[in-house]
Amino acid sequence: MEPAAAEGGRYTYEQYKQTADWLLARTEHRPSLAIICGSGLGGLADLVKDPVTFNYTEIPNFPQSTVVGHAGKLVFGTLAAVPCVVMKGRFHMYEGYPLWKVTFPVRVFHLLGAKTLIVTNAAGGLNPDYEVGDVMLIRDHINMPGLAGINPLMGPNDERFGPRFPAISDAYDEQLRALALAVGRELGYGDTLHEGVYCTLGGPNYESIAECRFLQRLGVDAVGMSTVPEVIVARHCGLRVFGFSLVTNKAVLEYGGREKANHAEVLEASQQAARKLEHLVSVLVEHMKAAGLA
Ligand code: HPA
User: Looking at ligand 1, which atom is closest to the CA of residue 122?
Assistant: First the structure.
């Protein structure tokens, strides 16, 4: 029998469990690492060995992906001999999903046994030192919808996942960030690899010039429309988190110019630089395993 939805349309513990059990019954992989791929960055899923793939449409309770560049597949397998589950295509607030739906897969990953979550996204560069194709390790975030009272943890708290008032000040794992910077140096990424602050906005429109100037003054280095809700839910249930932004465009900060952000440009830039980010993640996973962090 289908578990009933909780009050307010939220998922119940039983629904997360039903999805996790459904998946565990259909694959022998037991992932310790979960990866969420951003726009145009789903190629990481193609690096997975011995893949067992599910379309989101067949997985009980799973939301459906509606954006071009987001495929809607869950891939189990191994990356650098680490058992993992990779989301090729994520959910966004701008698709009309409430954040408890956007973050549904994260709690399923937790129930599958994953201990670490890696998130990737395409983002606009606000830091003047960032160029298109650069990669930013996320050191911290600004949750703009959260500041306005929209948070995936709003509503009744289920202590089986985590505490009512979780800390978020250490969300992006320090050890993994240090390891990633070392891996980036080893791979010769030099000053195309940065560490900075990511800000999420609701979207779907790109930012106005005044908004970009505002965000820059707040200390934001890269801006996007995803990632933070998943990170909050992951930290709530105790996953170790690590994230990258690929700079796919430079934010527009001056009036009178002709350039403006568009999705085709974002996808093109991510396709061009995707291999670099995918390589960085797969070498990082190798090092994580060697260091006993995966
Ligand atoms: N703004 C918001 N989201 C984005 C951008 C941007 O400039 N580029 C890629 N995702």
Answer: 9
Give the separation between CA 265 and CA 37, rounded to whole angstroms.
18
Q: What does the pLDDT look like over 69-91, one tens digit per residue?
A: 667 999 999 999 999 999 999 99
Q: How far apart are CA 27 and CA 46, in angstroms?
A: 17
Count of CB atoms within 10 A of residue 164's CB?
A: 10
Residues in the chain: 294
Among 225, 228, 245, 272, the mutation site with the greatest number of ligand 1 atoms within 8 A of its Cβ is 225
- For residue 22, the surrounding DSSP H or E stretch is helix 13-24
Ordered structural domains, the chain, with CATH: 7-290 (3.40.50.1580)
Active-site residue numbers? Answer: 39, 70, 92, 94-95, 122, 225-226, 249, 263
Reduced to 3 states (helix: H, G, I; strand: E, B; else coil), residue 147 is helix
pTM for the full model? Answer: 0.95
Provide the pairing of β-strand 222-224 with 116-125. Answer: antiparallel
Which among 286, 293, 278 has a CA at the least distance from the CA of 37? 278
The dihedral formed by the CA atoms of 102, 28, 19 and 203, expressed in degrees to the nearest 10: 10
Inform me whether the pLDDT recorded for 3 exceeds 80.
no
